[in-house]
Amino acid sequence: MRGGDTMDRVILIKYGELSTKKANRNFFINSLYNNVKNKLVDYKVNIHKDRAKMYIEFEDKDLDNITGIINKIFGIHAYQIAYIVESNDEVIRTKMLDVVKKEKFNTFKVEVKRSDKKFPINSQEYSRELGAVILKNIPDIKVDVHKPDLKVKVEIREDNTFIYFNTYMGAGGYPVGTQPKGMLMLSGGIDSPVAGYYALKRGMKLDAIYFEAIPHTSIEARNKVISLGKKLADYCDSINLHVVNFTPIQEEIYKKCREDYCITIMRRMMYRIASKLCEKYNGLVIVNGESIGQVASQTLTSMSVINSVTNIPVIRPVACMDKIEIIDVARKIDTYDISIIPYEDCCTVFVPKHPVINPKLDVAIKEENKFDYESLIDEAVNSINTIKIDNSKNTEFSDLL
After folding, report:
1. What is the location of CATH 3.40.50.620 in the chain?
2. N or C, fewer C-beta in 10 Å, the chain?
3. pLDDT value, residue 349
4. Do the strands 283-287 and 54-57 form a parallel or antiparallel pair, or are they unpaired?
C-alpha cells in the first residue's frame, strides 16, 4: 500500500477459537474478513487473509481509530502492531535491529516462531542469533529470559515475516453472522444489554424488541433503549429495534388479573409476542437478560411458568452471573451509565407490592383467560414500529412520537 516499503506496519490478527473449526474454518475466516472490511469501510486499508492469519495495511494517522474498532469485532482473539518484512535472513536481521533501536530498554528477550519450515534456521537457534545481533549493536543492555523490559517477537511465515513487541487481546468469540438471528428482549436495565453482548460474541445476529407502555412509560425511556442499542451496534453492522406498543395489554392485565400474578402474566405476554416476532423476522431463539433469583419473575419456578407459552428456545446468557459480575461487564461495554439513567420501563413501572415468586401454571392460565389477550397480541405485533440502529448515521425515532 505504500510502494513496497518493507518497514510498513500492519495489524496482525490472530484467530484463536476460529482455528479449531477444521472443515468450517474458511467459513468463519471469511465471515471475520467481511466483518472487518465492513467496519473499516471509511478507512483506506488493505486486508489480507489466509487460513493461518489476517493482516491489515493502514495509514498511520488512522491507527488509533482502527484499533478502537477492531477491539469490538468478535472473532479476533488477539492482534499485534507488527512490522512486515520479507522472510529473508538478512532483511529480518537488518529491519529487526532498526526497529529495536527505537525502543528504550535495559533487558530484552527474542522469541522466534518459525511457521515456514523451509526457512533454514530453526526457531530456537534463530532466537539466539537475533539476540546476539542486538547485543552486539546496542550498548549497555543484557538478556533476561524471565522478565525482560522488551520482548522482541519474530514470526516467520512463508510469504512474510512479522516483527512486533506487544500483543493486544481482542474481543474473542465468533464473528457475528456465523450463527442465525436471535430476538433480544432489550429493556432499559443493566442486564439485557449484557445478554445481547454475549449473544453477539457467540456469532449470533440480533434483532431487539422493546416493550413500551406510553403514557405510563416515557419517551426518555425509549431513547435510553435506543442508546443501548447503539452501544450494541458497535459490535455488529446494525440492529433492528422492534418497538411494541404494550399499553393495551398491560392495562388489561392490571384491570382484570390478580395483582400478585400481574408480572408473571405480563412476562408470558411478552414471550408470546417475542415468539411471533421470531416467526415474522426469522429469529431462531429468544435472548433475554434474566438472572436466576434476581427478581420475582426470575425464580426457577417463575421462569418455568413464563417459558411454557413458547416452544422457541430461550437463551439467558447472564442467568448464572451475580449482579456485580453483570455490572462489571456493563461497565466494560459502556452500557452501565446509560442503564442507570432513572427512566422506568414497563417491567418496573407496574411492579406490584408483593409479586408471586412461586407461581402456579394453572392459576396463571386462569388469570390471563380473564381477557382476550390473543387479539391484543395480534394487534401489538401488527402495529410494530421498527428502526434500524446503525452507528454510521444518525438514528432518529421521531417517526414514533
Report:
1. 176-400
2. C
3. 58
4. unpaired
